[in-house]
């Protein structure tokens, strides 16, 4: 298997000034950890600014100015799924037009702008890739700040922190670029692009590892950026847990 020598992190952003500084700082620390463990690995971080009208662009500029790993990509989709897809094609660059094997050494890591990754996030994903994983589905824990205790309890009862879990979160999704290309990439969906891609990878026989070894903390807000996304799911769960499908 081709060793990973390049890592690209893609973060879709739509008006996330409340959370973005912490999110980018977490990714910055994770990128630095890769350089310590695997010197010479090229790490880039692409912030996809989607129709932002708040201070998200200014916060991002602070990172792109001081850290050459960071860059920004502006789109006008108002869609997490389409932003994630666009950013991924952007970092793939010329690999889009070549054989998937040409992209085998590139690892694509995805997270969200309201989430904070741990310092070992990328190192952990790369360790699994070195062990044969084509994709890594990490777990997510909800930030308890501002979340009603009963909602937090309901969510935790449906999301056990364990290996081989059944969940798919765009906030914690890593994939070898060659597998991404063979599977067709994230679909042009408003939501659920992460779950669709994970299903396609499994259908094509790729090694997809669901793990709790690289856990990301995400906000527990119920003001949904996408009606059928994570925030919308939490709002439904708080209203009637018996009618809410597991996510």
How is the secondary structure organized here?
Elements: E1 6-13, H1 20-37, E2 42-50, H2 56-66, E3 70-75, H3 80-92, E4 106-110, E5 115-116, H4 121-130, E6 135-142, H5 149-158, E7 173-176, H6 177-182, H7 193-203, E8 208-218, H8 230-239
Parallel strand pairs: 1-2, 1-4, 2-3, 6-8
Antiparallel strand pairs: 4-7, 5-8, 6-7
Protein described:
- By secondary structure, the chain is an alpha/beta fold.
- The chain has one domain: Spore Coat Polysaccharide Biosynthesis Protein SpsA, Chain A.
- The protein has 8 helices and 8 strands.
- It has helices spanning 20-37, 56-66, 80-92, 121-130, 149-158, 177-182, 193-203, 230-239, and strands at 6-13, 42-50, 70-75, 106-110, 115-116, 135-142, 173-176, 208-218.
- The protein has an 8-stranded mixed sheet with strand order 3-2-1-4-7-6-8-5, with helices on both faces.
- α2 links the parallel β2 (42-50) and β3.
- It is globular, with a radius of gyration of 17 Å.
- The model is unreliable at 241-247 (pLDDT under 50).
Strand order of the largest sheet: 3-2-1-4-7-6-8-5
At the fold tier of CATH, the topology name is Spore Coat Polysaccharide Biosynthesis Protein SpsA, Chain A
Number of helices: 8
Mean pLDDT: 88
Largest sheet: 8 strands, mixed
Distance between the termini: 32 Å
Number of strands: 8
Principal-axes geometry comes out as globular
CATH class: Alpha Beta
The chain-level structural class is alpha/beta
Helicity range of the residues?
Answer: 25-40%
The run of helices and strands is EHEHEHEEHEHEHHEH
The CATH homology group name: Spore Coat Polysaccharide Biosynthesis Protein SpsA, Chain A
CATH hierarchy: architecture? Alpha-Beta Complex
Number of domains: 1
Q: How big a fraction of the residues is strand?
A: 15-25%
Report the uncertain regions: 241-247
